Amino acid sequence: MSAPAPWVRTRLRTAPLAALLTAALTLALVFLAAGLPRALDRGADDALHAFLRSYGPVADSVVVTSGIPVGGDPSQRLDDTTDRLTGLIGPVLPLDPGGPVSGRLATGARSLPDPRLDRPEAVAPEFALAYQRGARERVHLTAGQWPDGAAATAGGPVQVVLSAAAAETVKVPLGAVLDSGPSVVSPKARLVRQQVQVVGFYAVDDPSDPFWADLGCATKTCQNMTPSRSPADPPMAYWYAVALTGSEWMAQLPVWGDGAEDYWRLPVRVDTLRADRLRQTSFDLARVTSGPVSVQVVTGSKRPDVRISSGLRSAIDTARQRQSAIESLTAVGPAGAAGVSAVVLCLAAALAAERRTSELLLLRARGAGTGGVFRRLLGEGAATVLPAAGLGVLLAFVLLPTARWLPAAVAAGAVTLLALLAFPVRAVLLLRGPRAGARPGRRRVVGELAVLAATAAAVMQVVRRGVAPLGEGVDPLLVAAPLLLSLTGALLLARLQPALIGLLARRAGRRPGAVGFLGLARAARGGGGPRSRPSVLPLLALVLAVACGAVGATVLESVAADRAEVARYTIGGDASVSAGLNTALPAAFVTEAGRLPGVTDSLPVWIADDVVLSLGGGASVRVNVVVADPVPYARLAGAAGRGRFDPALLAASPGGGRLPALVSSDIPAGEFNLRLQGGDAADIRVVGFADNTPALIGSVGPTVLLPSGPAADFVSRFAGPAKWMALGHPDDAQLRALAERLLGPPAAGLRPGHVVRTATSEVAALGNDPLQASAVRMFWVSVGATALFALLSVLLTLLRAGPERAAVLARLRTMGLRPRQGLALILAEVLPQSLVAALGGALTAVCCLLLLGPAVDLSPLVGSGVSAGLRLIAGPIVQQAVGLAVLAALAVLAEAAVTARRQITTELRAGDAR
């Protein structure tokens, strides 16, 4: 007798399509499960690196400074200390392979009163002297020579080289000897004339090289400002530059300044830091700056006054706070997609078990035990699930490389285990059936009550204490609450759906025609026989998909709306153009700007910030005066949320030749006198109060708002409007081009000029943070994955009842059912379930937003502080619900097209039990 064929091989050959679909589903789900954690890690790491690099190379380094040691070769001692620092700090922190930067800097710049040098505001320029090891290799001389080391022992002026840009700006001739005047040198208290000789000019090979971060003014001329001691002594600009010298002149640097100090900057490789290990990195920095490593540096360097500091630790602490604040929100989207995918897997397992029920019952009748059946089904699943899962993990690890692998492995393992066990466990439960005396209804009620209790507890905790109260990272309750609410909604709908659809079926039965009644009656029974009932899994999958997709889409919509509100509040409208200092906007610009496409409200605003308001009794206060057309300005204030007021207040004339005025609340009501700086005056009467007016962003002091019509005579004393403001959607590039054409170049750095601000650019700036962009991108991926799972659940639901439905249609066709009536029957059977699920998912999403929305802080995603929580927006919820209904309709049409091509003889086979 030949040996029986292996079970797994036989089953795979018998149903290759089912095995292929199982493998494809497992591959997709495992890839998503392993890829989402790795994508989150990559996004967090990239955001961390960009955030730390924004602090600059000095803040991203460990900086060590010390006094000047006595004795020895200064250059050699500088190098020895560099080697020691690298050996002590390198094993603790990842240092940049480019190496540390070291040198000596004179602690103080000297003024050069030479009359040949340029003086912007009659203030003599200042030079600082420095030696930085390796500077000679990163520059090339454009004139002259490098400082002569042999001349250092002969005395005389300190030889230096100066950047060609600084020499051209300050007008320093080559070979010039610059004298800073006599100074007292300790300890002998003798007068010494401090002189430098500029022996060469150089140009830096790469000004953006972090090597020059310590000596930024060595590559260019900087413009500093003198301190202001009184209003009568305003700050004045002067030139400042750093001149470089050779190592042989290091001993002369303390004489030039008020002493000197040696410095070492050890750059940390921020690109190797990981977002999941920031806490440990902060501890390592503490060891270096104030822990055991710092003790070894101080005691072993044999240098006076050693100081170790790093701005990287505070930057990392800030990054940790940002990351923990956004992690909870970021996890909501993937958690919803994971919940839907788990239900889809269980739905697929239930479909497979129902398809093979007769086969399994036959095995059981022939003496197979449940344990044996379980092992055979487990082996069958392993042959398809494990290779697909391994390929999915491999793809995720190759396509999304990142250092951390454990979360991805755990997620992939959980999905693989669920895909492997779902079908065997479901099959064993079908084989065992209900126990004698057991009441399945009671167990279902107990399970539903447990889910309801868990949902109520989670929601109450989130509402009571908020989200992640102490910034502890992912909040499990916030992640679980939407899923639990969706599960509760699905269970409630599963209880109500048969009654609702049954009511529709009874109403359809009273009308002529049997197609609608038959379809609705089958829908009320879940598509089965007379005593069957709808399965909870299809409804749960659809409700979860709609609810989680709607919540994720609402988060994205709320973030966009909040950013638009913040941008409007920040600039006082949708666009504004401010004239340069002591200038006004020409009438041609105001006219052309108002005609730009997208501008709905355009108004010029006259502003004076040096006006005296007489309060009577000799008292007065300096105020800011804003003059504008009250009607569009009121619309602007309402849209920006700054100082809303009724424009009718400024339309009424108070009489007596006085101008109506709205003032800030720190000015009392009454009649007052306004006096401009030139002596012109105007009488006003307070008709209302309005704080925080949109034309004055960031200004301090009381404000007075006057209408431009009655105040026309007062406005004529101004040079022109100081600001143009608008509502609408003007194009940022067009507005900037118009302003540059009519107003000249914009303000940049210390250069005066006009300033253009639009809501579009502000929104783009708010969303430019890589951490926020990564979180928003993850929400989009989650919403897309949820939509795909919704489509898959619809298809699985149709496949579950497809064969039985095809047999019913075939029988009805033998009785005269037309193809168009067959399509109506399928629609009447399937669409009510999908519509109920879509409506239930939408209502569940509304409950989630109403219950959890106020506790969710969207500030980390918005990029600015916002007081409102997650708002209820109808658009995303309706889109998800309608999208599911459309998907269901398209799937039904596709199934009807396939079913229509089947022959009646194919479905009506002798002995068929369907």
TrEMBL record:
Alphabetical list of InterPro entries matching this protein: Macrolide_Exporter_MacB
One GO MF term: transmembrane transporter activity
Domain of life: Bacteria
Entry's transmembrane regions: 331-352, 373-399, 405-425, 445-463, 483-505, 535-556, 778-801, 822-852, 872-894
First and last residue of the signal peptide: none
GO terms for cellular component: plasma membrane
Keywords: Membrane, Transmembrane, Transmembrane helix
Protein name: Putative ABC transport system permease protein
